[in-house]
Write a structure and sequence with these properties.
By secondary structure, this protein is an all-alpha fold. It has a domain of 54 residues. The chain has three helices and no strands. The radius of gyration is 20 Å and the shape is elongated.
Length: 82
């Protein structure tokens, strides 16, 4: 006798941006400390990390049509005002 197995709903996958973006932002201080301990000058570290952040922002803007970037920037500015 074959019986039907009740279907359990499969949860929707989480938005990878909710986990990935904060994790990537957390890498910058760690990388800065590692480079400082390796003897790199502070100005060079700031320039390197700022360039990396700029490239990351440009990539997000290109691949997400700027909508997500605009939302992130507006929420960041809104948080600063409060």
């Amino acid at each position: 006798m074959i019986t039907a197995v009740p279907q359990t709903p499969v949860p929707a996958p989480a938005d990878p941006g909710r986990v990935l973006y904060p994790a990537l932002v957390g890498v910058f201080p760690v990388l800065g400390v590692v480079l400082a301990l390796a003897g790199m000058q502070l100005g060079d570290i700031v320039e390197l990390l700022a360039t990396c952040a700029g490239l990351g922002l440009a990539t997000v803007a290109v691949f997400h049509g700027g909508k997500r970037l605009a939302a992130v920037l507006s929420s960041a500015l809104r948080d600063q005002e409060q």
